[in-house]
Structures are given as C-alpha cells and as structure tokens.
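Intended use. Records like the one below are meant for learning the mapping from a protein sequence to its folded structure. Do not use them to infer anything beyond what is encoded.
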Amino acid sequence: MATRKSQRLDKVLVHMGVGTRKEIRKLTKAGRIKVNGSAVNDPSVHVMPETDDITVDGITIEYREHIYLMMNKPQGVISATEDRNEEVVTDLLEQEHRVFEPFPVGRLDKDTEGLLLLTSDGKLSHQLLSPKKHVPKTYYAEVDGVVTEEDALAFKNGVTLDDGYVTMPGELTILSSGPRSEVELTIYEGKYHQVKRMFEAVGKKVVFLKRIAMGPLTLDPDLEPGEYRELTPEELALLKGENNGN
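Structure written out for the chain above:
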C-alpha cells in the first residue's frame, strides 16, 4: 500500500540512497536540493515523497517505499543477507539497490540456482511464505535414474520424506526419461531440501536443480546466473494480486 504521510526530507533522501544525513545537510546548505522548484535549506522540512517534485542537482528523485527484484541465483551463493564465510545474494546487488536493504523471500539451497525474489517489503514476503497460502513453486531438475509415471503418481498422492512427513500433492512433468531424466516439479510448500528429498523417497537423486517459477512469477530467460532486474509493474501487480485473493 502506498505511503501518503509526510516525511522528513533528509529521511527520504537517505532512503533513496542519495547520501548520509550529514551529506544531505551539506547539499541543502549549498542550495543543491529543491522541492517543487524551490531550493530548500532545512533538511528536516517535511515533504510528501510520492507527490512532491524533489530534485538533487536538477535530477528528479523518484521515491519508492520498497524495492522488488527478480534474481537468477547462481550456484555457490547463499540465500541470505550476510554470512561470515560465504558469498550471499545481496553481495550481487548494485549499491543503488542495496540501500533499500532487501532480503531474499525464502531460500534456495547453495547448490540450487534460479528464481529468487528479493524485496524490502516484509508484508509481501510474509504473505508469499505463509504456509496457509500454498504458493506454488516450480523447479526444473535433472535426476539420476529413470523417472516414471509411477513416480508422477506417487508425487500426486504425496510422498513420505525421511523424517516421516507426508508432502502435499506435487505435479511432476517428465520432460525426458533415461539414465539422467529431465523433469519439472511444482510443489506447494517449502520443506528443507524438499525436492531432493521427494526424489530420494522414490529412490532417485537430483543432480541439478533450478527454480523457474514462484506463484505468478516466471524466471526471466534473459537473466544469466547472478543477474537480476526490478520487477515490472505488471509482475508486481500479479504478485500482490495473488496474495490478496484476487
């Protein structure tokens, strides 16, 4: 939901990554910041960030409360915002996006690649991850072993994992079957290593895993592993619409 409240100018500009409060104070003293065409010399003045015309050195600052990014997560990178020893997905972001302090929505295993949503919108993240929502997630997998229609039927009925948990029904599509099979699998929950453990339950091993869709979002095929882009307005509307029950 859009923010309609007024905010301090320096807070808005810090949020948008223009600089620190100290740096913004210097910019205002130098007359380099204007609101609706007039120079502002007090960084604590309140503005309406979504409707006021705010410029720095003549460049318009387009206010956004949150940021929404689609990443093709590469293998070897952890789905986290910080780790002492490993590279994390937020290390792959440009500074202009890092200033929003986005975090991954859910996680992909270190050796799994594909669609990962990063956002600063905690409400949307909670809705997408809520067990009650059963947001579908689709994966492309390469599997050691011949995947059969019997496996597809087992997944459709739910399989028992190694800890005794019985999964919700999953939709398994066999793309090719052989010594190394190619499949797509849609699941509606997110247990730890779930896809790998589901195949282990039918005596097979996943050797490559890539998430290709989450809810109404499909991974942009133009994104190479490690690349990302902002969601389009249409994609964001789809994502929020699905979680409002529309």
